[in-house]
Amino acid sequence: xxxxxxxxTLRGRATLxxxxxxxxxxxxxxxxxxxxxxxxxxxxxxxxxxxxxxANAAQVQRAxxxxxxxxxxxxxxxxxxxxxxxxxxxGDRWIxxxxxxxxxxxxxxxxxxxxxxxxxxxxxxVDGQTVLGIGLPLASGGGYFEVFxxxxxxxxxxxxxxxxxxxxxxxxxASLLVGSWATRPTLRPLDRVAGAAAAIAAGDLSARIDPxxxxxxxxxxxxxxxTVAALEERVRSDARFAADVSHxxxxxxxxxxxxxxLLEAYADHLPADGREGLELLRAEVSRFERLVADLLEIxxxxxxxxxxxLEDVRLADLVTESLSRRQTTGGPDVPLVxxxxxxxxxxxxxxxxxxxxxxxxxxxxxxxAGGATAVRVEAGPAEARVLVDDAGPxxxxxxxxxxxxxxxxxxxxxxxxxxxxxxGLSLVARHVRAMGGSVALSxxxxxxxxxxxxxxxxxxxxxx
Amino acid sequence: xxxxxxxxxDDARIRRVVEMTLQREGxxxxxxxxxxxxxxxxxxxxxxxxxxxxRLPGIDGFQxxxxxxxxxxxxxxILTARSDSDDVVAGLEAGADDYVTKPFVPKEIVAxxxxxARRTRGGxxxxxxxxxxxxxxxxAGTVTRDGAPIELTKTELRLFVELVADRGRVLSREDxxxxxxxxxxxGDSRLVDVHIRRLRKKVEADPARPEVVTTVRGLGYRVPA
Lengths: 464, 225
Prior knowledge:
By secondary structure, chain A is an alpha+beta fold. Chain A has three domains: 11-156, Beta-Lactamase (2-Layer Sandwich), CATH 3.30.450.20; 218-302, Orthogonal Bundle (Helix Hairpins); 311-458, Heat Shock Protein 90 (2-Layer Sandwich). Helix content of chain A is 54%, strand content 16%. The radius of gyration of chain A is 48 Å and the shape is rod-shaped. The two termini of chain A are 48 Å apart. Chain B folds into two domains: 4-121, Rossmann fold (3-Layer(aba) Sandwich); 129-222, Arc Repressor Mutant, subunit A (Orthogonal Bundle). Chain B contains eight helices and twelve strands. Chain B is globular. The relative contact order of chain B is 0.11.
């Protein structure tokens, strides 16, 4: 996922820009080199060939009056570079040193210009090969021509073009690499800031940025850390306040619960409306008590005073006991399905918290989703799971993460009036996290919601 | 004769409501508003159970508990306004037998007091058993090593008797919580662990290498036959 989104990151964009500039520069450079070098090579070639032709023409001129050598012999003895051909036009007679290049091969323009007394040169093709023809008029009339093959030069051009194109192409991966390497140290501070911010967003308020001697990071780290420290202090003091409040509520609640129980012993002596009032009072007080207990647990966890009592627990036993405890206190019967490998699975857990987790999940299903249809205990290679399916309509995808928030309720307005403070699932999430596990909401195969609690599996010696 | 309970609690309302609740259940109740007052009352007469708040003005509940343990084996149930494990464990280490967290419903405290009182009265125990040179007489409530008495609290004695009576077998924490404290599956197993630790200090030659009461990892405790 990260790799696919990489071009969208700052570092990705910087690297791409770096690469684009590098490629553009190397194209410009390659074209420049091509133009310069090819021009230089051509000029050099023309100069060399012209010099040779001029020297040879002068020698032909000088020798034409002298006796001894035939014109053919003279031509064949002229110093020439390999592959070039000398031609002599003497009136209508053309003498050539090559079997392949003759009068007919010299373009008419070139022939005409030279025979009319103007030195000329021209590129043309002979048998599909590019050649350079140079013609010089002779004082004796007629003209001296030399034809030079240019395939050597063409080959050089091709090699040059290939090298330049290859180099330009090689710039792309090279500059991508160099770019990403060069941007890393520049953007590493950002990575660290991003990492710290992500940790804080995930709830780790103790995350700080360590500038690690990077001077560019010091100011941002300082202000970031100060902000987070303030935030942490704020969250902690809020949590402490909530903890203190719920703590202070416990003493009066104890008195209220005790007095209420004493009053209830005399309920039979009360008139009907008095009994009803007492009934209402009892319902509200027990709800209040539950809320205070939940708030206390949550705020204690927030304040960093997590005090889970962890021990090895057989998950299936615990879930069985939790469900039967619910049943004895008037809850409906919920079918429990334990998979074969789930029967003996052991987790490291706080029994009472895990009991709260199971009963909260079942209770939540009863309050909001028409009851739990099944509770399952399963085991994986490294984890154990408790699954609670309900008979409700399921929870829309976009609301799923919200259900674990405090006081979260669905859009259904009916729910706002039902009991329960909406702390149930939030407490579940907290308890499960304190035990090193996770909780997730998905869809059950029957269409209702499925809450899955996953806990790390504990390896223990086998039971007798 | 009704069983007597001493309630040491600084909150007058809670004290009163606990008193009324226990009286309705047939207990004889005495009150103390501070640790000092509580210790003074304990010096005057014996009680079957002491209910002790941990947060007290003056000397606190932990200190009161340690003072009680210096001279007496009377069961102490601590009342803590927190489920704070530190408070609970510290209270148990100080010698308490059980605990109840606030807010509690009266039923709960009655059940705890009853279970604790029952523990101390015994009944139906086997005659004297000797394990590892230690002589346990459940009926007399005495434990001696080479004739020298070992002073155990009522709960420690009960715990030891359960383990000794079933010597050779592993008893899980749940078993012990049920048999000694009368808790169901969800009892706090720290009660067992702290009491085992205290018991070992008294009966083991070397508490760091227990031979009388051994731990069976992941399963529970055992007194080897």
